[in-house]
Each structure stands twice: as structure tokens, then as C-alpha cells.
UniProtKB/TrEMBL annotation:
Annotated PROSITE patterns: HTH_MERR_2
Pfam family, one: MerR_1
Superkingdom in the source lineage: Bacteria
Annotated keywords: DNA-binding, Repressor, Transcription, Transcription regulation
Gene: tnrA
Domain HTH merR-type stretches: 9-77
InterPro entries, sorted: DNA-bd_dom_put_sf, MerR-type_HTH_dom, MerR_fam
SUPFAM superfamilies found in the cross-reference section: Putative DNA-binding domain
Name this polypeptide is given: HTH-type transcriptional regulator TnrA
GO molecular function terms listed in the Swiss-Prot or TrEMBL record: DNA binding; DNA-binding transcription factor activity
Amino acid sequence: MSSYKDKKVITIGIVNEITGLTCRMIRYYESRGLIFPERTERGTRKYSFSDIELLMEIADKREEGIQTYEIKQELLNDNKKREVRDQLIQGQLNAQFNMKKL
């Protein structure tokens, strides 16, 4: 079951109000592959609280002078680390409790 933080229910205008980022900047981060909003049937972008947190991290890194390419690489590396960690935990569960994939 997904967390409330991951439900994509917030429009770009609200994200703009919460973060202070312009709609144009939010769309730019999307075009750079840093954020992935869902789209409604009419094409409206919908964001989650997790997306907002990520946007704030991205904005902070940009203020520090980090380029979007570097941020994307860091995000990809973080995802790979999480996948490896999850596989290790699953392997330990399998070995300890003879469990199948959760």
C-alpha cells in the first residue's frame, strides 16, 4: 500500500504556492527527467507530497550551483542503491525465514 505522500493529487499551481518555484521551473525539472508528475485525461499535471520534497531538494542543489545533469545522476545512483539494498534485505529474509518475494 502506498503512502499518502506518494499520491499524485496536487496541481502545479499549488506546488508553485508551496515551493515558491515558478510553474515554468517545475516544468523544466520535469523536462530534464528529475520529476515525474502524473497526467489526468485532460493533461493536467498532478504531483505528490514526495514530489514537492524532491523539488525542494532540487531547488536547494541548484542554488548551490549543482547542474541538473549532476542532480539526475545523483538521483539515479540513489535509486540503484535502494534497489540493491532491497535485494539484499529480500535475500536475507529468504535465507532466514524461507520467504518468497514480498
